[in-house]
Design goal:
Strand content: under 5%
Number of domains: 1
Number of strands: 0
Low-confidence stretches: none
Number of helices: 6
Structural class: mainly alpha
Largest sheet: none
Radius of gyration: 15 Å
Helix content: over 70%
Shape: globular
Length: 130
């Protein structure tokens, strides 16, 4: 396994995207840090596109990012390395298109998103046990 660092992130655009522009290097809860990056992405897309078009653009970004994540996972040597946070970024931005634009709703969306993300990850890891 090649542990990712800033040099690794900067070495290829695929790594830069998959590791959430560096958010995935966080030593503490990189998925949570990546989730937070979804907020400015949403604000940018919401300013540029109407809701339906914004969601379509996010779908395209997600699909393109999947390839970047695969490339990065192979380079690291771990297919689903915890630092690969592109999915959290795009999924959080997509979530925000469907909640009211209030601070309370955005905070609730963040905690619900993290709760489900951690719960699903835990469930998947249990399903792979012998």
């Amino acid at each position: 396994m090649v542990p990712p660092d800033w040099r690794f992130v900067a070495s290829r655009p695929a790594h830069f995207v998959a590791l959430g522009f560096g958010a995935g290097l966080s030593p503490f809860a990189p998925g949570t840090v990546g989730t937070l990056i979804g907020y400015p992405l949403f604000v940018l897309l919401h300013a540029l596109f109407p809701t339906i078009a914004g969601v379509v653009v996010l779908g395209i970004l997600f699909a393109l990012g999947c390839h970047r994540c695969e490339v990065t996972g192979r380079a690291i040597g771990v297919a689903d390395h915890r630092g690969i946070v592109w999915d959290e970024i795009v999924e959080m931005a997509a979530t925000l298109f469907f909640v009211p634009a209030t601070v309370a709703a955005w905070i609730a969306a963040f905690f619900a998103f993290r709760l489900f993300d951690v719960w699903i990850a835990g469930t998947l890891s249990l399903s792979s046990m012998p």
